[in-house]
Amino acid sequence: MTPVTCDSDGTAGTESDDKNSNGTTNQGGQSQQFTQAGDPMDLDGAEEDDEIVRKHKALCYEDIVLWLVQDPNGGDRDVLAMEVVFRHHKGAKNKRKPTVFLFRENPLPILCPISHILARAIRDDAIGVEGFNKPSRLFSSHTRRSATRVYWKSSMLKTPVFRRSIRTASGWAKSKTEPMKYSTYAFYLDRIGTDLGSEEKWTSYCFRHGHANAQVTGCPQNAYQNSREGFNTHDAFLERDPSADGPTRAFTHVSIKCNPEVPKQIPKAELAKLPPDPEVVRLAKQVEAMARRMRQDYGFIKAAPETVREEYQQLRKDLRSTEKAFRDDMTKVYQEECRRRLHHEELQRRLSEMTVDPELDERAKLEPSVQHQLEERTKLQAVLSDFRQDLDTKATTDRKIRAVELMVLLASRREVRRPTPSTSNSLSQGSIRPGFPDITPAVPNVKVEEVPLVLGETQCIYCVGEEKLPYSRRIRSFGRKSHMWDHVENLHLRYERKVGPFTCRHPR
């Protein structure tokens, strides 16, 4: 389970493919939701006797059963339980009956799958009974029955729970029918591992293998990203007690090899010192030569025929892909050298019996502070980072309710990716032990004021009406009018309907 399931709609990490993979047509960003006998159909025009068929082999709301169960221990409130039916997992074709997983509440919101699913259901307005749009009404219920099932709306049963983001004229939005692709999920996992400074690549196999180890060995730490044996196999071979001792538990835990001090990318200054990649040099010369030839023949690159421009754009894409591959390879080498240097410095410090500065040691133990663009994400981070286990029942419930409410609010906002500063070249200047790399704060919070009715010549009429964006991004002004028009054409007009009147996006 990963604590990133409830992200803001249309995040910057969304995949670039904006077309539906199944060939369905979009109307204003909305896709056809149901099919009958393989043909698209609209739910409003369907007959009552028509059978609604699933379109995707993904986790849908009909696969999740949410229960309100009376606390057998006589608690102050009912407890939530969840059944998840996996119909399309690996080997499902050879197995007639699907696999059913049972979940119960976890005191920590970050590790509670019910909280994440409930936040998504509230955001999608999927609960069948109107009025349960707040988590407090579910977490503070007292049912008269031993168990009460929470039914979903009939229109949401075939809808995937985790869906991809699509681009519309007004901005990014969650698709109504298209599920999140596995490639996107794998990209998110890899990015989390990179941000944590993990030596190994994070994949879904780590969680699947860790789940099996947790069931077999009963060691809770194996439920994390852990593909290592949880027992001391050496002692087991020597017929000693093979129980999981302290060092074994430490090495099977995910955090022991995660070092956030390792930079995420190689600094530009260090990359410039390396000899250029021959393939990059070859492609760069081809791009430069073709651009020069197009200007000589047609005057401007945009004036060239479409086939010539497509060939030129493909050549530029190949150049960017090759540059990225070379940069990623050098980043791996640079990160490994950083880890090696950190461990060598620590061993040399112990060997020379140097006295560690207490203040420096405390700074190294501090978590890096991150200031997000969205206030909702900052508040949610504080709640999810609260790992206190000694709270009473009311405080634990209030913390969980607050987490679900913030996840619902965050799902209605969109965070704009900003250029990340180059990584500090501290490796070439000295030790990088004295602290974590500085994380520059994002856009400061701006007091939201009324959007002016008359906009400036360099303001985007589409962005001012997108309420998911921060206020500073909605009313921003471009440096030139031409830059604003390029932004409108590339990011908004290309997703507008080609026929029919345009819709004014101004909030007033």
From TrEMBL:
Low complexity bias locations: 21-36
Positions in coiled-coil regions: none
Region annotation (Disordered) ranges: 1-45
Pfam families per the UniProt record, alphabetical: DUF3435
Listed InterPro entries: DUF3435
UniProt xrefs under PANTHER family: FLUG DOMAIN PROTEIN (PTHR37535), FLUG DOMAIN-CONTAINING PROTEIN (PTHR37535:SF4)
Name of the protein described by the UniProt record: FluG domain-containing protein
Organism from which the protein derives: Metarhizium anisopliae (strain ARSEF 549)
Biological classification of the source: Eukaryota, Fungi, Dikarya, Ascomycota, Pezizomycotina
